[in-house]
Amino acid sequence: MSTRFATGPYRIIELDEGQRVPYYIIPFDKRGVCIGPKTCEHLVSSVGAGDYTDIFLFSHGWNNDWSAATKHYEHFLRGYMKMRASHDLPMPDSYKPLLVGIFWPSTALAFGESERGPSMAAANPETMDAVVGDRLDEIAAIAEEMAEDDAARLYELAQKDELGSEESLELARLLARIYDEPDDELGFDDAVSAEDLVAAWGEAQTEPDSLEDFGTANSSAGKGPQAASIGGLLRKLDPRPAIRLATVYKMKDRAGKVGARGVGPLLRDLLDGNDARLHLIGHSYGGKVVLSATAIAPVSRPVESILLLQPAVSHLCFADEVPGTDRAGGYRAVLERVKRPILSTFSRHDFPLTKVFHLALRRKKDLGEARIAAGEPPSKYAALGGFGPRRCGEKLIDMKSVNAAYNFDPNVEIYGLRGDAAIDGHGDVSNEATWWSLYSLVSS
Predict the structure, then answer these.
(1) Pairing of strands 342-346, 414-418
(2) Is the pTM higher than 0.70?
(3) DSSP state string for 367-409
(4) Neighbours of 149 (CB within 10 A)
(5) 135-173 pLDDT, tens per residue?
(6) What is the distance between the alpha carbons of residues 68 and 368, in angstroms, rounded to a whole number?
């Protein structure tokens, strides 16, 4: 198409057997407002005509611009089709799919080996320009909703090489409002204090390798200020990783808003007035997008299937009861709104989701409940894509290779697919193991 927001499919993809498949991309802004309403109307109308048997809806994760998102979608789709052709995997003769990619603004944070910008040590001036631009975008994303005076002070603090204890607390007070958003994944509000934030920042700052996964310059000991505490507060703090950790939370909240306010109504429209099976696939924060969309309100009929690829949400989001509360996980209702078992991959090689994610989200009081057993979630904020689902009747199994049957148990509503042998990092989610997981799910 000549323009990305033209009415109708973004592209037509031809399958190996010659079938031509419409491929739509539906864009949303950060509030969940659809930017391409005519395209969305065309999609819903096409599905409503009853010409399609299966709809595959994908949502990307963080740090994907338009070009990156579309390339990720097409790589997965073409890989999936190639796997089917090379292994002679059949689909019913009546099979007529339609593809939908969700696009949402997620580029304020580079998080993960395959999704971050180049190193600050790069010598190329154009590379440096890109890095500086990314850093400015991150700070602006935080400041845009602040009062003018607070935003000005944030920029001042962000420019400093290090902060003392009082300035660290001041920065924490400026950023605390970001953490005051309700936590829909755990089903309860958990207020955070400035002291809580400074304590969490200090722990993250002592792990320079984890900070590098956020694209910071602190890639080795001795570079930049190191954590040193007095009375439980930091004596020195690098403000950049602190702001980046706050951005993790902000982007998490944005994914939920896009899912609930934008993609949720789209799901209801796609499920009304037709019999097409709706399959949802979400990577990273895209998992939060599709889960929020499914959880937001009852639909006329169930979603057919959900595949979560290294989802950046709490591992307790489906729990029957979140420890320390009398409430279920915030996405517990999703289990009743999907026909087939939910599949959710996790891998010990996903460094951001096993080592860093929970530091951005947990509070000072959680430090005492951290677990040290290998493979166990370190806190209730630990990522689903790092440790797999818990307390929801789950079954944790290894991902299987092509033609190895999964044999899903009809009494199990969610499977955690251990991807240690198949997923080497946070962005490594388009390979034969993940394609086979999708095929096994939709053809079961």
Answers:
(1) parallel
(2) yes
(3) GGG---STTS-SSTT-BHHHH---SSS-EEEE---TT------
(4) 8
(5) 677 788 789 889 999 999 999 999 999 999 999 999 999
(6) 40
